Amino acid sequence: MDKEIALDLRHEAECDIDVGETIRVLGGKWKLSLLHELVEQTRRFNELRRALPDISQKMLTQQLRELEEEGLVERKVIPDNPPKVEYSLSAYGQTLRPLFAVMLDWGANHRRRKAQSEKLSGKPS
């Protein structure tokens, strides 16, 4: 096999692995929404529940725990009576900010494109 082709195939395989890792860490119904809620400010558990009313308490706990295990979210217990728990993006989690900016732009462009398409076809989506 040609050396250049072998390098291309290896690069493609590494890209597949990297994309798969990203999907593994950020995939699922709630993780991106949770991270988005934490981009601008620290939130307490119940604030996150109110921001995402369709998520169950069990699922919220599980998703936050997984994000914390990946080093994207920090959990801080505030000794009070009763204790309070706050969640925020870690320094590593802050590296996702550009991803959210791209997603915001893409979503806005997609909505405009979809609205334009519906306008031309006369069909609502």
Give the key terms:
125 residues; mainly alpha; Arc Repressor Mutant, subunit A; three-stranded antiparallel beta sheet
Which CATH top level class fits? Answer: Mainly Alpha
Most strands sheet:
3 strands, antiparallel
Structural class: mainly alpha
CATH architecture: Orthogonal Bundle
CATH-defined superfamily: Winged helix-like DNA-binding domain superfamily/Winged helix DNA-binding domain
Per CATH, what is the topology?
Answer: Arc Repressor Mutant, subunit A
Number of strands: 3
Mean pLDDT over the full residue set = 89
Q: Residue ranges: pLDDT <50 for 5 or more in a row?
A: none
Q: What's the overall geometry? A: extended
Radius of gyration: 20 Å
Report helical residue fraction. 55-70%
- How many helical stretches? 5
Q: What is the element string, with H for helices and E for strands?
A: HHEHHEEH
Strand content: 5-15%
Order of strands across the widest beta sheet? 1-3-2
Ends apart, CA distance between termini? 49 Å
Tally of distinct domains: 1
Keywords: DNA-binding, Transcription, Transcription regulation
Organism: Paenibacillus enshidis
Domain HTH hxlR-type: 15-115
Pfam family, one: HxlR
